[in-house]
Write a structure and sequence with these properties.
It is a single chain. The chain has 250 residues and is of the alpha/beta class. Helix content is 28%, strand content 24%. The protein has eight helices and nine strands. It has a six-stranded mixed beta sheet, sandwiched between helices. Strands 2-1-4 form a three-stranded antiparallel beta sheet, with helices on one face. Helix 3 packs across helix 4. The chain is globular, with a radius of gyration of 18 Å.
Length: 250
Amino acid sequence: MSLIELKDLSVAYGSSEVLSDVSLTVNQGEILTIVGPNGSGKTTLFRALIGSVKPSSGWIIRDKDLKIGYVPQRLHIGTTLPITVERFLRIQKNNAQISCQQALEKAGIQELAQKQVSDLSGGQFQRVMLASALLAEPNLLLLDEATQGLDQLGSADFYRQIEKVRTETNCAVIMISHELHVVMSTSDRVICLNGHICCEGTPEIVTSDPEYHALFGTGTDGQLALYRHHHNHVHDENCSHDHSEVAEQK
């Protein structure tokens, strides 16, 4: 089932066009990775998906039941702020569908409920942000370089948890990251973005594409086997779209 669809989407800031004629469909249960150099429009694409920027042309079609959870690059909290993880989540739970404890369990950190936020490691805090995003039981998770600052093992561990969340909830996941060898090995589909979609497909197809090599070189070749997920998830590209068309057009 299609959760969100972009048709010929373009976004401009003033006279500067950041995205041009981007078309893509995100299906229930898939993990999609967006890669691209700095300034390629990745964050702008997320803002368009969330609805915080309007397209200069094109369409965004959203499923009537779409619920988005967002995990940002970072969130700055005062290091002296006396607040536990559970209290932090309770502040976030305006539209919560599940309890804080359930969200922590889904993020794999239920043991951290009473720990002070200021005492968390970077990886632990990103898991808390994941738990926060899961409170509303989203069917689409957006991760905007959510492991920035973590080491490779921490990043791989975080993305394994994302894969587990997808398996358990059947939510779709869209990830932005520069950690190509870690993130792409977790993905069902990859889109290489540089103001427009340069290439897309499975990680193996994208990393063999000349346009991908023009942007990133060949440094990640052979590293996609860091860990490769295996699942029985099947996507039907030709399934009927039972969704309302909340279209945005300029």
